[in-house]
Amino acid sequence: QVQLVESGGGLVQPGGSLRLSCAASGIIFSISAMGWYRQAPGKQRELVARLTSGGSIYYTDSVTGRFTISRDNSQNTAYLQMNSLKPEDTAVYFCNIVARSRSFDPAQGYWGQGTQVTVSS
Question: In 3D, which of 77, 76, 74, 84 has the Cα closest to residue 18?
Fold first, then answer.
């Protein structure tokens, strides 16, 4: 099994910055993608940023130029650096990875528990 632990959320003023972390642990053979989603009250969960093992990076339009996703392969940890935060970035942020526990296992998606990010003055 794979477990994800997120950290780094909190309350920040508009224009401020936060850095989210997502540490994966357990039996992990490989991770093919790591990403961050968010869900605001009354809205659907949306993909914010995604990084594949091949180096492809995706950002949703609203965060392009402000957010940066990165990964520490040695620690199986993903990061989301969020700068120039806006009130509309307020949401619960969830980490998601696609991983194989063993070489012969199919790739599966795993979710973190979520961390609250609130941008308010």
Answer: 84
